[in-house]
Design a protein that fits this description.
Elements: H1 4-18, E1 33-36, E2 40-45, E3 51-60, E4 65-72, E5 78-80, E6 84-87, E7 95-102, E8 109-118, E9 128-137
Parallel strand pairs: 2-9
Antiparallel strand pairs: 1-3, 3-7, 4-6, 4-8, 5-7, 8-9
Length: 158
């Protein structure tokens, strides 16, 4: 049995050479567009005139990625700070896409759209579709909590 293993291994190598099998060639690293957060939700009071802004962070798993963004379907209550930009490599920080919600008098209800982020064909996971939701409420109530000091070394005086 000990003599059979070298023979079987030799036959396997010979067959691989005969059929032209070899280890796969090294490929370029797959590039991904990293997007955070994965969805946006805005909350507004019906009838109030207000605005809210969120920031989408963009980065690349490899070299910089040029991206474009569109709102689909287009809605009056949402706008983008830029329609294109660059997502730097993850180890160099991240790019930003500012998204602004403007309350334009929608009645109470839930509204939705998407932000579609696209890049060239060398980016593995594009387009990235980011769901966006606007919740219009009859009334918003605010809750103010007391300040809690977690550091016993400092004292808060009033």
């Amino acid at each position: 049995m000990h003599r059979l293993w070298p023979v079987l291994l030799g036959m396997a190598v010979a067959c691989a050479a005969w059929f032209g099998l070899s280890a796969p060639a090294a490929t370029q690293a797959e590039r991904f567009l990293l997007v955070s957060p994965g969805e946006l939700t805005f909350l507004a009071e019906a009838g109030a005139n207000d605005q809210s802004e969120s920031v989408i962070r963009l980065a690349s798993t490899d070299t910089s990625i040029n991206w474009t963004a569109v709102i689909s379907p287009s809605v009056a209550w949402l706008s983008l700070g830029a329609m294109q930009g660059v997502a730097p490599p993850l180890d160099e920080g991240d790019g930003e896409l500012h998204v602004r919600m403007t309350n334009t008098g929608q009645p109470t209800g839930v509204y939705s759209t998407t932000i579609v982020l696209s890049a060239d064909t060398t980016v593995f996971n594009t387009p990235v579709v980011l769901p966006v939701k606007l919740i219009m409420a009859d009334e918003l109530r605010y809750l103010y909590l007391p300040l809690i000091n977690l550091n016993p070394e400092t004292q808060v005086t009033q």
